[in-house]
Amino acid sequence: MTLSIATATTDAGVVTVELAGEVDYATAPQIRETITNALEAGGATAIRVDVAKVTVLDSTGIGTIVVAYRIAREMGVALAVVNPNRFITRLFTVVGAEELLEEPTETFSGKERSAAG
Q1: Does residue 115 have a pLDDT over 90?
Q2: N or C: which end of the chain has fewer CB atoms below 10 A?
Q3: Phi and psi (nearest 5°) for 41?
Q4: For the chain, how far is it from start to end, CA to CA, in angstroms?
């Protein structure tokens, strides 16, 4: 299971967490630690989880991001998933977590959603 994580912070406090590789049960703790560190460091105004280079995303990975979203929101920090491909967009839509996507998508019609779920 391979995952690399790169982080960058702007002067405005926007933290980008770029994930590349497999986001699953084996790598989820790394993501959790990275986002926790960003929140605990203080000064973060938003966290952007960039998934453009993610090759695998399982339920544990999604769950980790959802929990991070809820914790960040409680701390007053916006968290969004950015640059999802069609597959990742569909996963977040099917599990009912599309609010985490930076730009709500109309990729799937209501008919496709009900057929998928």
Answers
A1: no
A2: C
A3: -65, -25
A4: 28
Using an 8 Å Cβ cutoff, are 47 and 72 in contact?
A: yes
CA 17 – CA 94 distance, rounded (Å): 23
Q: Residue 12 pLDDT more than 80?
A: yes
Please give the single-letter amino acid code of residue 51: V
Q: Which pair of structure tokens corresponds to residue 43? A: 């000064």
**Six token digits for residue 74:** 């409680």
Count the Cβ atoms, other than its own, within 10 Å of residue 100. 20
**What is the pLDDT, as a whole number, of residue 102?**
85
d(CA 26, CA 2): 9
The one-letter amino acid code at 81 reads V
Residue at token pair 């497999």: 22
